[in-house]
C-alpha cells in the first residue's frame, strides 16, 4: 500500500508523516496558481516560491516525493494565447528548477506539453480528469500519464468497473480513500469548475466562491441519512478489497485539514483500522474558525475573501458562515457530534455491497444502504432539524435570487 497525502505547508508535518513508511508522496499547491486547482484560493496558504523550494527539499530529505497540482478543470482559454503559453511553461520550468517530482493535471493538452518538453516530471491525471471508463483510462495513459486518479464519484462503489479499468491499462492507478462525495453526483463537473475558477490567478471574482455544490450534497445527507453510507469513502479496514482488484495507491484528503486531524487520518489508513466516528476520517473539514484550528490571521483572510457586498448580500454571507460552521464539525465524539457513525459498526458493509450491482439497480429498489444507515447513523435530532432549516433557507434563496438581491 502507498499513500499520497495532502500537504498545506504546516510546520513539522513532513517529519511526522515520514514516520509512516506507507507515505510515499505529498501533494500541494500554492494559492492562486495560473492553472487553477481543486480548492478555492481562500482555503490555501500564501506560500512563496522559496518556501515551496524549502518544502520540496525537506520532503526529499525524508524520502517523500513532492507532487505539485496544476489541476484546474479547465485552463480558462489561457493555453490558446502566446502570453498564456509563456506563463504555463514558465511555471513548469520553475517547478522543475526546485526539484518537484510530479505534476498533477486535468488538461490533456497540459499532459502533452509536459510529456514533450519536461520529461523529468512524472505525470498524474487528476480526479478532475473524471476517469470513469477503461477507454478514458487508456487515453490518459497514451497521453503520457504515469498515474491515473480514478473518479471516486463514478467508480469507488462499482467493483466491476474498477476491475475493467485495471485490466485496460498498465500504468499506476490511484483511488481517493476518504472523500465523502455523493455517488454519481450531477454537480460534479459544476463543482470542479467552481473550485478551479476560484483558485485561479486573475479570477474575475477575485477568489470569491459561494459553494452551492457543498450546500446541495450536505443538505442531501441531512435530509436522507442513507447518503452518509452511499458516499464514496473507503474505510481503512476495506482497503484490502481494492488491493485485491489491483489498486494499491490511495490518496488521503484534505489540504484544508488541521495537521493533527490529517495525521490521525494517515495513521488510520496506514494501520488499516480505526475506532471512532467515521466522519473524523471522511467528513468535510476546513480551518474556518477557531474550533477547527484556524488562526486569527487565517480567519481574517477568509473573511476578506468572502465579504463582497457587490456580489451577494451581507446577510447571505452571515447565513453561509453559520451553515458552514454547522456542517464542518470540530467535535467527533458520540454525544458531542451532530452526526456519529461508529466506524466498526460498518464491518462487512462493503463486502455486502459487492454482492449487489449498484450500476444496474436503483437505491429505492435495493434499499441496502438505507438499512445500514438506519442501524449505524446516529444524529442529534435538534441539530438535524436546525441545520436542515438553515440549508432549506439558503437553497430557497439561491433558487429565487434573494441571496443576491432583495427582490429578483
How would you describe the overall organization of this protein?
The protein is of the alpha/beta class and 408 residues long. The protein has a single domain, classed as TIM Barrel, CATH 3.20.20. The protein is 45% helix and 11% strand. The protein is built from 19 helices and ten strands. It has helices spanning 13-17, 49-61, 82-97, 108-117, 134-143, 152-155, 159-168, 188-198, 212-223, 226-230, 239-243, 259-271, 279-282, 296-306, 314-327, 349-354, 363-366, 368-376, 381-400; strands at residues 2-6, 23-28, 65-70, 102-105, 122-125, 147-149, 172-176, 249-252, 339-341, 377-379. The strands form two sheets. Strands 1-2-3-4-5-6-7-8 form an eight-stranded parallel beta barrel, surrounded by four helices. The chain has a two-stranded antiparallel ribbon with strand order 9-10. Helix 5 packs parallel to helix 7 and helix 15 runs antiparallel to helix 19. The protein is globular, with a radius of gyration of 21 Å. It starts with a strand and ends in an 8-residue tail after the last helix.
Amino acid at each position: 500500500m502507498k499513500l499520497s497525502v495532502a500537504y498545506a505547508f504546516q510546520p513539522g508535518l513532513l517529519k511526522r508523516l515520514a514516520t509512516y513508511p506507507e507515505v510515499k508522496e505529498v501533494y500541494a499547491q500554492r494559492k492562486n496558481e495560473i492553472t487553477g486547482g481543486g480548492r478555492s484560493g481562500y482555503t490555501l496558504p500564501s506560500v512563496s516560491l522559496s518556501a515551496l523550494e524549502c518544502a520540496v527539499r525537506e520532503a526529499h530529505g525524508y524520502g517523500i516525493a513532492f507532487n505539485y497540482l496544476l489541476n484546474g478543470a479547465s485552463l480558462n482559454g489561457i493555453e490558446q494565447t502566446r502570453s498564456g503559453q509563456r506563463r504555463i511553461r514558465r511555471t513548469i520550468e520553475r517547478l522543475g528548477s526546485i526539484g518537484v517530482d510530479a505534476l498533477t493535471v486535468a488538461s490533456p493538452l497540459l499532459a502533452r506539453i509536459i510529456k514533450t518538453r519536461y520529461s523529468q516530471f512524472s505525470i498524474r491525471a487528476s480526479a478532475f480528469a473524471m476517469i470513469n471508463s477503461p477507454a478514458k483510462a487508456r487515453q490518459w495513459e497514451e497521453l503520457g500519464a504515469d498515474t491515473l486518479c480514478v473518479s471516486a464519484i463514478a467508480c469507488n462503489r462499482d467493483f466491476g468497473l474498477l476491475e475493467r479499468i485495471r485490466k485496460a491499462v498498465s500504468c499506476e492507478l490511484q483511488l481517493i480513500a476518504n472523500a465523502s462525495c455523493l455517488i454519481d453526483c450531477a454537480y460534479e463537473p459544476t463543482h470542479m469548475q467552481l473550485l478551479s475558477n476560484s483558485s485561479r490567478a486573475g479570477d474575475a471574482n477575485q477568489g470569491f466562491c459561494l459553494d452551492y455544490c457543498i450546500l446541495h450534497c450536505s443538505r442531501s445527507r441531512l435530509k436522507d441519512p442513507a447518503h452518509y453510507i452511499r458516499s464514496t469513502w473507503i474505510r481503512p479496514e476495506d482497503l484490502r478489497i481494492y488491493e485485491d482488484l489491483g489498486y494499491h495507491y490511495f490518496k488521503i484528503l484534505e489540504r484544508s485539514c488541521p495537521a493533527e486531524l490529517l495525521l490521525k487520518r494517515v495513521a488510520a489508513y496506514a494501520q488499516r483500522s480505526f475506532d471512532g466516528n467515521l466522519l473524523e476520517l471522511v467528513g468535510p473539514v476546513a480551518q474556518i474558525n477557531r474550533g477547527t484550528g484556524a488562526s486569527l490571521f487565517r480567519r481574517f483572510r477568509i473573511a476578506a475573501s468572502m465579504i463582497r457586498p457587490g456580489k451577494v448580500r451581507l446577510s447571505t454571507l452571515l447565513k453561509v458562515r453559520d451553515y458552514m460552521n454547522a456542517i464542518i464539525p470540530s467535535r467527533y465524539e458520540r454525544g458531542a457530534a451532530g452526526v456519529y457513525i461508529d466506524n466498526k459498526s460498518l464491518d462487512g458493509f462493503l463486502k455486502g455491497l459487492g454482492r449487489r450491482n449498484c450500476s444496474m439497480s436503483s437505491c429505492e429498489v435495493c434499499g441496502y444502504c438505507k438499512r445500514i444507515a438506519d442501524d449505524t447513523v446516529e444524529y442529534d435530532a435538534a441539530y438535524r432539524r436546525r441545520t436542515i432549516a438553515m440549508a432549506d433557507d439558503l437553497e430557497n434563496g439561491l433558487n429565487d435570487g434573494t441571496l443576491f438581491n432583495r427582490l429578483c
